[in-house]
Amino acid sequence: MAIVYRRSKGLTDVETHYCPGCTHGIIHRLVAETLEELGVLGKTIGVAPVGCSVFAYDYFNCDMQEAAHGRAPAVATGIKRVLPDKVVFTYQGDGDLAAIGTGEITHAAMRGENITTIFVNNAIYGMTGGQMAPTTLVGQRATTAPLGRDKSHAGSPIRIAEMLATLDGAAYIERVTVTSPANVMKAKRAIKKAFELQLEGRGFTMIEVLSTCPTNWGLTPVKALEWLNENMIPVFPLGVYKDITKKEA
Amino acid sequence: MAIVYRRSKGLTDVETHYCPGCTHGIIHRLVAETLEELGVLGKTIGVAPVGCSVFAYDYFNCDMQEAAHGRAPAVATGIKRVLPDKVVFTYQGDGDLAAIGTGEITHAAMRGENITTIFVNNAIYGMTGGQMAPTTLVGQRATTAPLGRDKSHAGSPIRIAEMLATLDGAAYIERVTVTSPANVMKAKRAIKKAFELQLEGRGFTMIEVLSTCPTNWGLTPVKALEWLNENMIPVFPLGVYKDITKKEA
Amino acid sequence: MAYHEIIVAGFGGQGVMSIGTTMAETAMAQGLNVSWLPSYGPEMRGGTANCNVVIADTEIISPIVLEPSELIAMNQPSLDKFEPAVKPGGLILVNQSIVERKVQRDDVQAIYVPSLEIASELGNMRVANMTMLGAYIEATKYLKFETVVDILRNIFTGKKAHLVELNEVALQRGADCVNR
Amino acid sequence: MAYHEIIVAGFGGQGVMSIGTTMAETAMAQGLNVSWLPSYGPEMRGGTANCNVVIADTEIISPIVLEPSELIAMNQPSLDKFEPAVKPGGLILVNQSIVERKVQRDDVQAIYVPSLEIASELGNMRVANMTMLGAYIEATKYLKFETVVDILRNIFTGKKAHLVELNEVALQRGADCVNR
Amino acid sequence: MATGNVTFRQDWCKGCGLCVAVCPKKIIFLDESITNRKGYHPATVKDMDQCIGCANCARMCPDSIITVERV
Amino acid sequence: MATGNVTFRQDWCKGCGLCVAVCPKKIIFLDESITNRKGYHPATVKDMDQCIGCANCARMCPDSIITVERV
Amino acid sequence: MAKELWKGNEAIAEAAIRAGCRCYFGYPITPQSEIPEYMSLHMPKVGGVFLQSESEIAAINMVYGASGAGARVMTSSSSPGVSLKQEGISYMCGAELPGVIVNVMRGGPGLGTIQPAQGDYFQATRGGGNGDYRLIVFAPANIQEVVDLMQEAFELADQYRMPVMMLLDGMIGQMMEPIEWKKPPVSPDDLPEKPWATTGTKEGRAPNIINSLFIDPEACNVHNKRLEEKYRRVIESEQRYETNDTDGAEVIFVAYGTPARLARAAAGLLEKEGIKAGVFRPVTVWPYPYEALHEVSLQDSVKAIVTVEMSTGQMVDDVRIGVNGVKPVSFIGQAGGVIPTPREVANAALKALGR
Amino acid sequence: MAKELWKGNEAIAEAAIRAGCRCYFGYPITPQSEIPEYMSLHMPKVGGVFLQSESEIAAINMVYGASGAGARVMTSSSSPGVSLKQEGISYMCGAELPGVIVNVMRGGPGLGTIQPAQGDYFQATRGGGNGDYRLIVFAPANIQEVVDLMQEAFELADQYRMPVMMLLDGMIGQMMEPIEWKKPPVSPDDLPEKPWATTGTKEGRAPNIINSLFIDPEACNVHNKRLEEKYRRVIESEQRYETNDTDGAEVIFVAYGTPARLARAAAGLLEKEGIKAGVFRPVTVWPYPYEALHEVSLQDSVKAIVTVEMSTGQMVDDVRIGVNGVKPVSFIGQAGGVIPTPREVANAALKALGR
Ligand SMILES: Cc1ncc(C[n+]2csc(CCOP(=O)(O)OP(=O)(O)O)c2C)c(N)n1
Ligand SMILES: Cc1ncc(C[n+]2csc(CCOP(=O)(O)OP(=O)(O)O)c2C)c(N)n1
Ligand code: SF4
Ligand code: SF4
Ligand code: SF4
Ligand code: SF4
Ligand code: SF4
Ligand code: SF4
Ligand SMILES: [Mg+2]
Ligand SMILES: [Mg+2]
Q1: % of residues, chain G, pLDDT over 90
Q2: Which residues are within 8 A (CB) of G159 and not within 5 positions of it... i.e. 6 or more apart?
């Protein structure tokens, strides 16, 4: 018998505080596996956001910084400019990246900052108890949209991948999800490609991962996967939005 | 003899502080004429930014608020939500809107905030003495890019019209310039259309106006127009980037 | 009457908070002074949750309970954490269904309630917390059964009105565990 | 020597600031204490600009000049604004080319320099400001002509080295306006 | 015959059921007879013989507590 | 014969020359004989007879100080 | 009036609505998220504006715009979020705009913790933003008091044209207490006119301008002196405080908010030990009731002044200024979400008394 | 060493580079834009990092990241921009990150004016951000002193792992004075190791974590107490001040920065009128030299203490705390970019002396 799957060395031996079935955990693992496989754990600095993944600094087995809400790309920029040969990534939720942190992520992308952003879009503010995010779907309920997001009042969800893809500095942008083993494998490939491009110095890379929040969606973990597939993917289509390696081909 | 052109009533009888030949003045006039022609001067509240147009509150002949640097769209949102029947516009430079104010403009657009933004892109921080803006061209010199903007260090210019056009809440986005009488007339039509759509309650409208900064570009006013035509337009192509009235046709 | 300082503690989802608010509402309806203070934070994630309730006929000085006169321990970690803090002569109510050990102090009164068993007998696991509240009322005797039921009637209205009766039974079954 | 508090004022673009810095550099080279303080702000827009220069062989207490011992007025608004502030017995240098009026006070010394006329005779309008500086040096006599020229030599190097001589002539022509 | 073998770090299991949902052989279930110290019924495999070692379960486990071996 | 007539509020003119540049009849110039109180040589029209009242000048004037009339 | 059991944060929101506030902008942050949540449901019901902004900075600038447009408007946040609002608050003060800002404080510095604390006292009372400005800062100690003061907060904001802050700690936001709605609700239609507001000229008046820029230093100085004069009037008229058993006390606790409750518990403990202790509780922490505190300190009976805070010591500066050397001032506090116990507080008094 | 004529802002930038700073993030704002401008040209020449950020908030968070990665790093701004940095500064303090922050103050509140002022004293000394934290704040009075203190600023930042602020006014930034470069430049290679920095584990050590979150209140309290203890050490060791003619003076001016120069001019005026006046000048405004000021005030000769500020009165709080009632404290100031004249200052002294 040979081990075909085991806990990645990219994760510390610490239990996470995530709710049962929250796919934040899966995404953590994919990042950890990527860093392990690329052999860069010892030269990686990760940046944790403010959000449910605020404690990510305890979970990734590499040097970590905890950033202020929304500012992870600025913090990562500070690190990367000082240590251009290291691998630097941010791990951010949709409140963190697409609300308060809109300026920082946009300008990191514009500059072609040579970092990788893992953008976990669960269409809600998880940590603070289910308030509306800029990515909340029209009609979706949230504690600050008790009757569902009303387009005429709060607009329609922001599509970050599409928006940042308009910037020249963005080298690779893909939207993936983790709702099935097959999707998990695709997500892993995307994440790995992003880090590889960073290692090649190609510029800003971002993988947007559609993720669940069973707790605040009020669904079981398994139902949450279904809800995501049925409701989120149509609004946030999966796919590659920017790939500078394509131009060259 | 009949008067075919006179100073608009939308402007106060005050001399501007703008440098000789700075096209901020032309853009002011176009907004003023539009408000006058639409008969809405008495029900308009304008929001001045921080930038060379910081004193715009003295120049427009309507109620005005001066906003903190970059926050004009938030201030305008506050006004519009309280006074939905009034006409509300922001007048912002590229440092104001595309650097520090990236978050506010993006979210106003996302929400489909029913306001009009006049975005004066002169590829430089005018007011503070010619520092690099996010819209500064690659190779263009600025006091904080003394050897010219270096793409590998500071990225390529952000294209705001293109970026915001990805948002559903944006009703009308066009990029114009004022480098010739013909362009001035086109710009005027665009501005007028934006305000008309606001009056119809259609959502967020923005007109990006490519503008000169003879002082900080180190060019005479006339040479500045030429430089703009030759260098800025290729990077910031003129045209309509979003028009919800087109879908309906 | 005494100055009651109560801690209700358990897993998130066990109805800890609503035991506290129901007590508080009842006390208020009886004209008593009251405060209710929850633990808060990422508690939704299956960690422990607790609330402090103070009930008195005199002014309430501090809503923080450091040394409870009564403890309702809905799970083992809660008993472990708060048992030592209970005032000598105080009362500990234990959710016997999932707490495996007994109260170790002998200077306090201990009452055990098989809340899950009762709830499953009643066919609705959600009323488990009401059995604990029933036992508390019976053991301390200053909150009125009828008032609690009035409060429940305000909570369960419309389609949920039928739940009042069920909760009433649960309260009673909890009360029965006292002096058993 | 005296404690010199100087205001140099004029339109933006008239070289007001560099008169001040050249004075300051010269004084420093002569081992004197010095401070230079510009007006700043949206001055680039053709408004008025001025700088305060303090030169002394004692410690400089404040770099702000409220009552100048010497005023160099490059345009009319500057003369209008600062003439009243000049210390009795002080000196006012007027850029006669564009200031239409005379100094009105009689408790100060006034010197008039046709800076633009001289500059145009010399074939380079940019040296107009140097004529004013030349007059200042000649009138106050504590800054050394040679030191100024040394400073200019540091400023105009390489391709611009030929400008040193031109500036020197301009300084001299300005100086000639004193006691004319 | 089993081609795979799966082990769970049960004390860390949150009983979310994602592994249960994705197992092609439907051999994983939450063991209601156990309540771990976190208060959850942990996942376990009923019939290891049927395990094909596909690692679907491990790929979906948010808590990375599944180890999969294969012949 | 003139079909247009142009007037300038000269004390507000900044001498930027944009009107000069866009006049199709090339009749506008900066009057070096005047220095206004801002220190600029203001724009003026040499030969009003040639003015066609196209208003190009007014459209380009950043300081909105040109009035154009037409027959 | 019947008593009702309310959670602090929800009571705050409801009290604002009853005070005629019809406009709220905010961003979620623990431990105050129930305020925007309540507003999101209830503002629309009264025809008011609720908007969740993209950030705290956007929120305060929306408040600026709405206030400038004449609305009775509020925002709320907690410590790190309030830090982000400092520039905006400074602008509101510069432009003389009314508005109510609620800070439900948590432990700091930085992300700190989400538990109750009082580490933002300096920020609130001195202004964490740039320039010379002040806010009226109410520091109520229980939910009833918050509710009672809310209407006044809006009124003072309008009267003086300046922002008013409600400085609370997470405990007040999260706890429930029975409260009474003592004052009748205010209808927005009954509020005084704001002729300075930018509501459109109707081409009938000169434009109104909302602005904090005074580029000419003389003008800016005059503006500052005018603000200072306004603040002087506030200092004269708006100091609020409460004393408990301070007459003839040997030790005086000075505390605001939750620690004032603990200080009273500590005074009770000391009483039992034969020591007379009183509590001086500022209700406005700006303007600070310096003279009243000085008066109390001057009593012969008073041997020690003990400041109690949920911080490492901030208000103690004001206590020192108020006491002005007439009695020794000491400090007891816990920070980062820990609440000092009455025993600790009592012991600090004993120590200050040299026992 | 030969004297060189330097503009304040450029001297600041050059001094930082000579202090071994190889990393600068900032955003333009008058009257300090020459700092980023100088850095943009000179940092690349020494192999350092210059980056113009998209905002002041981004800048301070880049500083956080770079500092956490071990760099000697600086940012600069002016009043409204520094307001925006408050959350970030609070985070740096919470995470114990060194760094130098320059505030070239202008008039406020809000957009105010671009002329020199000192309205950000409270913000600098009390922390405009959330939570209990302090910065070491240097307030030099001329360019030479700025330059002399810069190296120390970086060293203290590293030694105590906390940000250090240079609190200047626009005049110091804009003026030119001759300066000497007294200390030899520091090479970044010679700086002490930072074993806590996140530079990659090389899989040889446990991960380093830069963080200000302590979710458990007990842990957060311990963290705060530890910070407090550190601040106590700073208070003990790092107070700096200067006195001029305070011995036997009848009136003492207390002033920092530019007003200290004016106070000396005023003292000169008073001298002529037969009144002995001295100047007490804090060089660190946090830690504030309270005891030294108290000492000076205790002199029998001293009849009045006059605080001089380019504000409506902020440091006067600290003067009151330091003097602690032993002598009357009064205040003279101008705000919004106006600089008080020596005559006004002298008159304030006369008034305080009752003449
Ligand atoms: C400046 C600031 N504002 C607000 C907060 C409160 N806050 C913490 S997490 C969070 C939202 C997180 O949502 P998201 O980024 O979507 O992450 P998720 O929890 O959904 O993974 C907010 C608003 C904060 N800590 N700091
Ligand atoms: C918070 C803050 N940061 C910086 C500034 C300084 N500032 C004033 S104007 C300006 C840039 C303006 O550039 P832009 O928006 O392009 O307008 P322009 O002057 O070019 O028209 C800056 C950075 C400020 N006033 N406030
Ligand atoms: S609240 Fe939502 S996002 Fe956060 S851990 Fe729980 S399920 Fe995951
Ligand atoms: S600095 Fe540039 S943008 Fe500003 S007024 Fe002058 S020319 Fe116009
Ligand atoms: S490895 Fe595959 S077959 Fe085996 S338990 Fe896991 S999912 Fe089921
Ligand atoms: S997926 Fe993991 S945590 Fe969830 S039930 Fe299976 S083993 Fe347990
Ligand atoms: S109206 Fe036309 S023709 Fe006449 S001056 Fe103006 S630009 Fe020239
Ligand atoms: S365009 Fe206007 S400001 Fe410029 S020169 Fe002509 S008239 Fe004068
Ligand atoms: Mg989220
Ligand atoms: Mg610009």
Answers
A1: 99
A2: none
Nearest to residue H65, comparing CAs of A46, A61, G80? A46
Question: Which domain does A142 fall in, by range?
Answer: 24-248
Nearest 5 degrees, angle CA G327-CA G333-CA G336? 155
| Best mutation site among F29, F51, F71 for ligand 7 pocket (most ligand atoms within 8 Å of CB) | F51
Query: Along the 180 residues of chain D, how does pLDDT read in single tens digits?
Result: 789 999 999 987 889 999 999 999 999 999 999 999 998 876 456 567 899 999 999 989 889 999 999 999 999 889 999 999 999 999 999 999 989 899 999 999 999 999 999 999 999 999 999 999 999 999 999 999 999 999 999 989 999 999 999 999 999 999 999 986
For residue B11, is it within any domain?
no
Q: What is the pLDDT of residue H135?
A: 98
Could you report the per-residue pLDDT of C79-98, keeping only the tens digit for each? 999 999 999 999 999 999 98
Instruction: Write down the mean pLDDT value for chain G.
Output: 97
Q: Which domain holds residue F30?
A: 4-70
In a domain, B12, yes or no: no
Show me where the domains of chain G are located.
4-237, 242-352
Q: The domain at G4-237 falls in which architecture?
A: 3-Layer(aba) Sandwich (3.40)
Report the candidate in G328, G330, G290, G281 with the shortest Cα–Cα distance to residue H324.
G328
Q: Is E1 a residue whose pLDDT tops 80?
A: no
Query: Ligand 4 within 6 A of B244 CB?
Result: no
CATH assignment, D3-176:
3.40.920.10
Whole-angstrom Cα distance, residue D134 to residue D146? 11
pLDDT tier for residue C44 given thresholds of 50, 70 and 90: low
CB < 8 Å to A215, chain C: 44-45
Tell me whether residues F69 and B26 touch, CB distance under 8 A. Answer: no
G354: CB partners within 8 A, 6+ apart: none
Helix (H, G, I), strand (E, B) or coil at C103: coil
**Which of A91, A213, A222, A232 maximizes ligand 3 atoms within 8 Å of its Cβ, making it the mutation to test the pocket?**
A213
Report the CATH number at residue A207. Answer: 3.40.50.970
Q: Do domains G4-237 and G242-352 have the same CATH topology?
A: yes
In a domain, residue A233? The reply is yes
Does B181 contact F69 at a Cβ distance shorter than 8 Å? no
Question: For G146, which DSSP code?
Answer: H
Q: Which of B195, B165, B228 is nearest to B88 (CA)?
A: B195
Q: Count how many domains chain B has.
A: 1
Which residue lies with its CA nearest to atom 7 of ligand 1?
G29
Domains: count for chain F: 1
For ligand 4, whether the C-beta of B124 sits within 6 Å is no
Compute the distance between CA of residue H221 and CA of residue H232 in angstroms, rounded to an integer: 16
Closest chain D residue by Cα to residue B19: D45
Which among A7, A8, A24 is the nearest to E62, CB-wise?
Answer: A24
Question: For residue E40, what is the domain's CATH number?
Answer: 3.30.70.3270
Per-residue pLDDT tens for H57-87?
Answer: 999 999 999 999 999 999 999 999 999 999 9
Summarize pLDDT for A20-63 with one digit per residue, the tens.
999 999 999 999 999 999 999 999 999 999 999 999 999 999 99
- Give all chains having 3 or more CB-to-CB distances under 8 Å with chain F: B, D
Burial B161-188 (b: 16+ CB within 10 A, else e): bbbbbbbbbbbbbbbbbbbbbebbebbb
Which chain H residues have a beta carbon less than 8 Å from that of B69? 80
CB G280 within 8 A of CB G241: yes
The correct CATH number of G242-352 out of 3.40.1190.20, 3.40.50.920, 3.30.420.40, 3.75.10.10 is 3.40.50.920
- Here the ipTM equals 0.97
Distance between CA atoms of G331 and H168, rounded to whole angstroms? 32
Contact C59, C33 (CB under 8 A): yes
